[in-house]
């Protein structure tokens, strides 16, 4: 005889915190955006042309990888 009631059993489903992305979310766009900002600062401050070109390259990758439901103003400002 089993004292547990089957209708009262609920499976555990972990909730992701509001500030953190879900594990299945691809963060390539964010990484490319940060790398592009780093290279753009190096290109501007140190006057290295190859850093500036890498910043343009990473910025284009970030812009192309962005999702349609992301904030348009934020995407355009990070691309510029």
From TrEMBL:
Family (UniProt): Belongs to the Asterix family.
The cellular location(s) given in this protein's UniProt record come to:
Membrane
GO cellular component assignments:
endoplasmic reticulum membrane
Q: What is its main location?
A: membrane
BP GO annotations: protein insertion into ER membrane
> Which PANTHER family does the record associate with it?
CGI-140, PAT COMPLEX SUBUNIT ASTERIX
Q: Which domain of life is it from?
A: Eukaryota
Organism annotation: Artemia franciscana (Brine shrimp)
What is a GO molecular function of this protein?
Answer: protein folding chaperone
User: Which residue positions does the secretion signal occupy?
Assistant: none
Task: Cite the residue spans of the region called Disordered.
Answer: 1-23
User: Species lineage, top-down?
Assistant: Eukaryota, Metazoa, Ecdysozoa, Arthropoda, Crustacea
Provide ranges: composition bias, Basic residues: 1-13
According to UniProt, the name of this protein is Protein Asterix
Q: Which of UniProt's keywords are assigned here?
A: Membrane, Transmembrane, Transmembrane helix
